[in-house]
Amino acid sequence: MRVLGLMSGTSADGVDAVLAEFSGPPAAPCWTLLQTASMPYPDSLRQAVTAAGQGARLSSGDWLDLAEAITEAQAQAARACDPEATAELVGCHGQTVWHRPPRSGRRGASWQVLQAPLLAQLLSCPVISDFRAADLALGGQGAPLVPMTDAALLGRLDGWRAVLNLGGIANLTLIPPANGPDRDAPVQGWDCGPANSLVDLAMQRISGGQQAYDRDGALASRGRPDQNRIERWLAEPYFHAQPPKSTGREQFGAADLERRQRELASAEPADLVATLTAFSAAVVAQDLDRLNQSQGIRPLELVVAGGGCRNPVLMAELRRRCPGLTLRTSDELGIPTSAREPLAFALLAWWHQCGHPGSAPAITGAERSTVLGVLVRPG
Question: How far, in Å, CA of 268 to CA of 212, rounded?
Fold first, then answer.
């Protein structure tokens, strides 16, 4: 089956799309990546999405306009990726504007803005969306959603394999080995903390809105990280909470950046961005160290995907802070770094069609695994 996957992530920079073909057993599918496309959001839409994700007050009409604009942007990316309209199914994550993990006896909730019936009509194709809802209803985090797809798409090694996504938020997947005593261990995954979210917001402030991110790590490369401050930040509660755990801009967004900027009040802009960049790498390195200490798991390799792969300073910090660990980008395994998440949502949509569960209690903390997504057909 040919499936379109659409993903607009926490960075709110646009929509990544893939056209893929799936067949065979759902847990170990045969898959082919046929086409990819990326469509940046117009500046006005990017700013509106970012503001909404920071709790900006919008009128009911503003929310409707935003949902329609996001949906139309998804349709535009879908057409660019599949101009001949060969897809039989679309998996679309929508645009996350708020994520509330379960805590203190309160159930979790998550809001992905999308008008799925409109998207189905625009593309004349069934759409599966709202992938987090079923897991949240079962008491789970509703995130991260991609670890089970990572395991299905990338497969196993003789040892543990780690997959790291560097989007707005950094999230890890741990895939058990093919052989040995850990071969029956569950796939693991969680959100580590900020990857690009704080750096992007800092760049927008420093540049007066002229730069959405630190292209090629240019500003960070001219600065010096404040390691003492990073060590203090690493002691914060979120970074010591045990999985399952998930997060987003509601925790690592504008208010969080303002606090960290106040703590670095005397830092030059380059030093601020260098510190935030190194902090993103340090968060991941600390999680991997704690994994080794608590479970004796030390991955053979770390496969990195997401926009952060294009920041050489961030990648250099990861290599420095994760000695002995082989770093590879997902490109080396046949998945372009910008395609990993939309490919995951294409697979989740196909799994929905097959009735195959896409979540796992070991990852989200839900009562049980379940099929993810809600199906909408064109009228």
Answer: 19
Are 2-141+339-376 and 147-333 in the same CATH fold? yes
- Give the span between the Cα atoms of 379 and 377, in whole angstroms: 6
Q: Note whether 90 and 119 are within 8 A (CB).
A: yes
Q: Which of 3.40.190.10, 3.30.420.40, 3.30.70.100, 3.40.50.2000 would CATH assign to domain 147-333?
A: 3.30.420.40
Cα dihedral 256, 259, 263, 267 in deg (nearest 10):
70
Q: Is there a contact between 338 and 166 (Cβ–Cβ < 8 Å)? A: no
* Residue among 235, 187, 213 nearest 311 (CA): 213
User: How far are the Cα atoms of 244, 248, 282, 284 from residue 279, in angstroms, in the given order?
Assistant: 21, 16, 5, 9
Domain ranges of the chain: 2-141+339-376, 147-333
Longest dimension (CA), the chain: 59
DSSP 8-state code for residue 16: E
Whole-model pTM: value is 0.96
Amino acid 152: pLDDT: 97
- In CATH, what class is 2-141+339-376? alpha beta
- Both tokens of 66, joined, read 């935003």
Tokens describing residue 329: 């980008």
Q: For residues 252 and 280, what is the distance between their CA atoms, to the nearest angstrom?
A: 11
Taking CB atoms within 8 Å and a gap of at least 24, the contacts of 289-294 are 291/174
pLDDT at position 54, please?
Answer: 82
DSSP state, 188?
Answer: E
Q: What is the pLDDT of residues 280-306, one digit of tens each?
A: 999 999 999 999 999 999 999 999 999
Helix (H) or strand (E) segment spanning residue 283: helix 269-295
* CA dist., res. 179 & res. 158, Å (int): 6
Q: What average pLDDT does the structure give for the chain?
A: 96
Question: Among residues 40, 30, 1, 39, which one has the least CA distance to residue 126?
Answer: 1
On whether the CB atoms of residues 109 and 366 are closer than 8 A, the answer is no
For CA atoms 275, 276, 277, 282, the dihedral sign is positive
d(CA 144, CA 360): 10
Q: How far apart are CA 3 and CA 343, in angstroms?
A: 9
